[in-house]
Specification:
The chain is built from 24 helices and 19 strands. It is α/β, with parallel strands linked by helices and about 750 residues long.
Length: about 750
Amino acid sequence: FDASCPPALLEMLSLLTVTALALSSPVRPGGRTGARAAAARGGAVLLSEEAGDADAALAAAERELQIALAEAAAAREAASARKETAARAAAEEEAPHARLVLVRHGQSEWNLANRFTGWVDVDLTEQGILEAREAGRLLAAAGLEIDEVHTSLMRRAIRSAVLMLSTLNQCWLPVRKHLELNEQHAGLLTGENKVSCAQKWGVDQVMAWRRNFEDPPPEIAADSAIQRAIATDRRYDAARVPSRECLSAVSRRVAGLWEGTIAPALQEGRTVLVVTHGNTLRALVAYLDGLAPEDVYHVDLPTATPLLYEFDADGAGAEAPVAGLRHAREHGVWGEREGAARHGRFLVDESRVRAAQQAMRQQVLQDIAYSMVTAPTEDGEIKTAFTAPEARQRLSMIEGEGYTVRQTPPAYFFQESERLEEQARSDLEEFRLSTRLLKVPGQKKRVRCALVLLRHGQSAFNHDKIFTGWADPDLTNRGREEARLAGKMLKVAGVERIAMVHTSLLKRAIKTAWLALDEMDLQWTPVQNTWRLNERNYGELQGRVKADCVKAHGLKQVQRWRRGFSDRPPPWSDATLVETIDRRYDLYRGGDFPPRSESLEDCQQRLRPFLYGELGESMRAAVDAALADAEAGGGEYEVPTVLVVASENVLRGLVMEIEGMTQEQIPLVDVPYAVPLVYQLDSALTPVATPWAEPPLRAGWYLGDPTKVRAVQAEIQADLAVEDADDEEEACLVESFDDERGESVREWRCS
């Protein structure tokens, strides 16, 4: 076109070109008919108009074009939805009925030292932490959605399990801990170097103790320092601790768990993750693959290397040891032995697995350790074994997060060394100094149970001053450190055992519980998760910066939503609901679940079934067990402890119910991050009032340095601060100076 072409005509021709391009999009044939008709209508309108009516023609063409584009988009979406539905149906048709994932824990300290471990509770190395996280990534890459998790009572397996869940972003799955999944007891070999044992007793004999089905190692003496440490461990109070085990003994104790728990879950079509120890897994594999005792000798399972078994309800595969199920397929053999079929598939390259298996078999001849994470190099996957010279603990940054790494050489059990808890002891001393004159005669005899409420450590949303609600942000490194310090505080305060931990379905609370238990050396404590301990639902405030909400709605209104009793924030939109509610909530869907917004009153209502149900049952069971122990042993009654780890508003709701607070008092409660709030309860599980409590609390008191507690509370109170805000803006929380008390006090004026 030359310069004489009217601009309006150029615009009309451009629109026709866009329409033609829209029609060229790949949509279903039927869907294109409407688009063609609309384009034709638009073209007719354009081409039939005279130049003087160009504007009207252009407007009409634009309307027709929008109709055409909308029809084309709808057709494309419908086609995409049909494609997704068909793909999902095909995947479901091909998917196995059930899956079982077996994973050995990550490298432990005594794996690195090439020592027999057995029932000694050594920890993961840094490499072991990396391995466990990588195992989680492998499970994620395989698209596995785990339904239940089982592990042993030992730290190295429990930590590996929770690290995998963390990497999978499935922290909310309960981790069930079983004595039956403990490692094979190594007897007299416990703590001994494998090469040294081979030099002392001969390679064949040591390999027979390591691998044969019916050959137990020599017994360890009951008065051995190592065996005494195991036998007196609180996790085994109700168990008989063996002095040695052969693999057949391990197989017998695993069989009960298999028949009663794992096999029924597989029959129901669930995906089960078992994280445990090398010999325990050998017993399970022998059962799963129907191996003869002589074939079990050749089963090697490298650390943190997932082995996936898939089962069909019908098919031509080999019969599985689960009624009504068959193995989906065979994936090789064990130890290159014909007839020793392996129906599990390693989720890593099989050549790497074989290299690690070869290294494992050489450990009685060479003092070496291996890892499945380091890239294969001359000194990468296989390294010289290393034994730490002394017991110690340090914080190590791994992939941007802080992890506690412990060293426990065999000499530890022959020394009476203990880890220094400097910061915790200092904070506890400050607390004791502040309360040394506040003694209550006879209070100790009244106390029958301790209830500890613990807010999670600082989360990423806390750091950024964002309303969190049911969103699921992770802990910051500060939050992880706060959680660890909470565990240290409880430990140095004399808490040696926790009967039960209750927490929410949100990772910031779950990880706080994990980290606190880890610092207390109580990883084996049972943990129960419930949605009732989820944070209060902040509705459409969720994910919004608090100061922005103040600008939009005013300080007074946001304070009512945040600290008031009966004010609900605006509800979730459909989009927020879909984004937030995932499969962790499948068991609860329906009726009034999930709530789209909650006041503190709503939150308290949903907490009552937990408080008077699950929590009450846990505390009563703990008291009954403590009474039975005292009567059986003839000793002093040991006050049991129950721990609740949740978010601030949930804990405020619990505190209001426990303490009988008014609607004017509860807005004044600020719960600091990860500082234990302790309640002592009498035989009726009623809180015992204490002078240690600071108003408005009457019975609960914070276990920590009072100065630090108040500093964190002040930080929380300042979350709603807005730059350049009007100092005269009306507020619900008002601070004034009390002449009689000689200090500033806060009041709630929005009831």
